[in-house]
Design goal:
- By secondary structure, the chain is of the alpha+beta class.
- It has 2 domains: 156 residues, no CATH class; 212 residues, no CATH class.
- Strands 1-2-6-3-4-5 form a 6-stranded mixed sheet.
- Helix 2 packs across helix 3, helix 5 packs across helix 7 and helix 7 packs across helix 9.
- InterPro entries: DUF3103.
- It comes from Aliivibrio sifiae.
Length: 375
């Protein structure tokens, strides 16, 4: 029984935290991958290319050789643990992947240079001291956190794009459930309405035309950044916060301008024609359900302190957004979601060119867009 098999048996017999299982699993998977690589190399090189730098378990064929089978079985078990620990069972069935750390490594690896096998260290990025990696002979290498290695590195990692997509779906469901009014209250409110509001003939929006970041808060081993937006404002018909979560899958690297043309704000959802946009970078180990609860609680608690909201109108929105940012506790995360920047008070029917966020990390163009209803 090798170390990895013994570890899996021990994990099944001994109650440990999901975080401990995950941290041990990724390190041992990287070490086991170094042993199984000669049996997996052909499949991985057939899957990883200039268009796709990663391979999930479903990308690889069933392996007949024992070392490869052992690795893939262990990775499958770790994948299930990863999903369960995040509460994402209803949103995805595959999170773990094998990823080439940087596109610059592809040519050397495809030409035959032997890779290293690594994993993200535990804890917050600010506390990392080095990146631990294994070679095919079992030797340990300690790599710089920020300087990209010249040698190819295959990383056992979470598919951050898939995790963010699933996590935002969970957060939207949680926010919807938390904000849903009791049925009786809805019936009473609607019964007092003299007539139902007319269905709008057009949709008034603001689009993000382009955006650029100075710093994406990502070490090389973490791959592409996974940025998302929290749009915050006040509901048009109730004194409650409106929170929208926007995935930004194109925003991969810092110091590159991305022509997004993405709708960020649907103005029918926001009072006073004003909203704020918080940019966050997703990292490993976010508790998405708790994050949704924290965001909503911070906004709701702040609004409850304002007795006459119409007196201050949209001026309270930046204060509410600052309350959200201030109440994102570090202990929600093992590897914190990084605050990237915030755009305060984006106004309806207003165009912004080379508009800097409050943290001077993001620069963006915003423009109004009216979408006509079609039959």
């Amino acid at each position: 029984m090798n170390k990895l098999t013994a570890l899996l048996v021990l994990c099944l017999m001994t109650p440990v935290s999901a975080n401990a299982q995950d941290e041990v699993s990724k390190r041992d998977l990287a070490q086991e991958l170094s042993r199984a690589f000669p049996q997996l190399e052909k499949s991985l090189k057939g899957t990883i290319n200039q268009y796709q730098l990663s391979a999930s378990l479903s990308d690889l064929p069933i392996q007949p050789k024992p070392q490869a089978r052992t690795f893939m079985a262990a990775m499958s078990a770790a994948n299930d643990t990863e999903i369960e620990s995040r509460g994402l069972q209803h949103y995805t069935d595959e999170l773990l992947e094998l990823r080439l750390a940087d596109p610059s490594m592809l040519a050397r690896w495809q030409a035959g240079q032997s890779p290293l096998f690594a994993f993200e260290p535990e804890g917050a990025e600010s506390e990392w001291q080095y990146i631990e990696a294994f070679d095919i002979d079992g030797n340990v290498h300690y790599l710089d956190i920020y300087d990209i290695p010249e040698r190819p590195v295959l990383v056992v990692d979470t598919n951050n794009r898939e995790e963010l997509k699933a996590g935002l779906a969970l957060m939207r469901d949680e926010l919807k459930a938390l904000q849903e009014q009791p049925k009786a209250q809805k019936i009473a409110r609607y019964s007092m309405m003299q007539s139902a509001p007319a269905e709008p003939t057009e949709i008034n929006t603001t689009i993000l035309k382009k955006i650029q970041l100075k710093d994406d808060h990502e070490p090389w081993i973490s791959g592409k950044a996974e940025v998302y937006a929290i749009v915050s404002g006040v509901s048009p018909d109730r004194d409650e916060p409106t929170i929208d979560l926007i995935e930004m899958p194109y925003l991969d690297y810092a110091e590159q301008s991305y022509p997004a043309n993405q709708i960020m704000i649907f103005w029918q959802r926001y009072r006073w024609g004003a909203a704020d946009i918080i940019l966050m970078e997703q990292d490993d180990k976010t508790d998405y359900k708790e994050l949704a609860q924290t965001i909503l609680k911070a906004a709701s608690d702040f609004l409850a302190t304002i007795p006459d909201k119409e007196a201050q109108a949209y001026l309270i929105i930046p204060q509410m957004t600052s309350a959200i940012i201030a109440l994102l506790p570090d202990d929600l995360f093992i590897n914190d979601d990084d605050f990237v920047d915030v755009f305060y008070t984006i106004m309806k029917d207003t165009e912004y060119t080379d508009h800097s966020g409050a943290g001077n990390n993001a620069t963006a163009d915003f423009a109004p867009l009216i979408i006509q209803k079609t039959e």
